[in-house]
Amino acid sequence: MIEIQNLVKRYSGPAGDITVLDELELKVLKGDSIAIVGPSGCGKTTLLNILGTLDIPSSGSVSISGKSLEGMDADERARFRNHTLGFVFQQHFLLPQCSVLENVLIPRLAGDWEEGEDETRERARKLIQELGLEHRLDHMPFQLSGGERLRAAVARALINQPALVLADEPTGSLDPSMGDQVADLFAQLNNQHDVTLVTVTHNMALANRMGRVYSLENGKLRQG
Ligand SMILES: Nc1ncnc2c1ncn2[C@@H]1O[C@H](COP(=O)(O)OP(=O)(O)OP(=O)(O)O)[C@@H](O)[C@H]1O
Ligand SMILES: [Mg+2]
Predict the structure, then answer these.
(1) 91: Cβ below 6 Å to ligand 1?
(2) In this structure, are residues 80 and 67 in contact, taking their beta carbons and an 8 Å threshold?
(3) Which of 119, 162, 168, 218 lies 20 to 30 Å (CA to CA) from residue 44?
(4) Bridge partner residues of 198 (DSSP)
(5) In terms of pTM, does the model score above 0.70?
(6) How many domains does one find in the chain?
(7) 43: Cβ below 6 Å to ligand 1?
(8) How far is CA 118 from CA 63, 82, 99, 129, 192, in A?
(9) Does 197 map to a domain?
(10) Mean pLDDT of 32-36
């Protein structure tokens, strides 16, 4: 599902270049779930952004689902992102003026989908129900608890039936015991939706429930 070879990412800053990712290698098979841990600033979000086609490597190769990301132009990247990837961010970025159902439907607005509108709405309702939020369908984000917001964000990440879900600190500022709940949720995604999962987290309860745990150190991934 993911193959990264010799990935280097440098940023130039006021004090010169910094190398955040340094000849990093990674292989993830379809259906795997992995966690990436490491101290603040070690490059976890940078790596996820590159996998998410939101940022471009300085050098090296990245392919997802057999497609090489290097050759894609901006349109192809946008299409790939929309069709193949699902994102869950730390600050869930739900639109405050939209209900749970409307938020889940947002990724559907861009792109040319064959499925009819009614069918999509029905699928959105089902997803929301699966995630235990059916009683919050018409609630606005401010009327949800932190965990409920996360579940809405996960439903939104799944609406386009992605092959790969990228999650950056999904437990966010939720209390530490949320690690287990998020892990249950992700196990469900992994099993029922056959989704490959890469999650960046500080929460070891969550990390240890993933198939493999990597730590990002000095620009490289180390398993264990
Ligand atoms: N656009 C940018 N320009 C310059 N430097 C950047 C840029 N984005 C990130 N960096 C630097 O790259 C390093 C890695 O940042 P990154 O956001 O990937 O860390 P992280 O591991 O996700 O940290 P955290 O756990 O705090 O979220 C940091 O030192 C950061 O300052
Ligand atoms: Mg980060």
Answers:
(1) no
(2) yes
(3) 162
(4) 34, 166
(5) yes
(6) 1
(7) yes
(8) 34, 20, 17, 17, 23
(9) yes
(10) 96
Residue located nearest, by CA, to atom 18 of ligand 1: 43
- Cβ-contact 163, 1 below 8 angstroms: yes
CATH number, domain with residue 29: 3.40.50.300
- Maximal C-alpha separation, the chain: 54
The residues near 18 (Cβ < 8 Å, ≥ 6 apart) are 10, 11, 12
Question: Which CA distances in Å does 108 have to 102, 103, 164, 192, 197?
Answer: 10, 10, 17, 21, 21
Find out whether the beta carbon of 195 lies less than 6 Å from any atom of ligand 1: no
Can you give the pLDDT at residue 174? Answer: 66
Which residues span the domain enclosing 206? 2-95+146-223
Let me know if residue 129 belongs to a domain.
Answer: no
The proportion of the chain whose per-residue pLDDT surpasses 70, expressed as a percent, equals 98
From the number of C-beta atoms within 10 Å of its C-beta (0-12, 13-18, 19+), residue 89 rates as: middle
Q: Look up residue 106 and give its two tokens.
A: 């947002």
**Cα 167 to Cα 169: distance, rounded to the nearest angstrom:** 6
Report if residue 115 sits inside a domain: no
- The CB of 50 under 6 Å from ligand 1? The reply is no
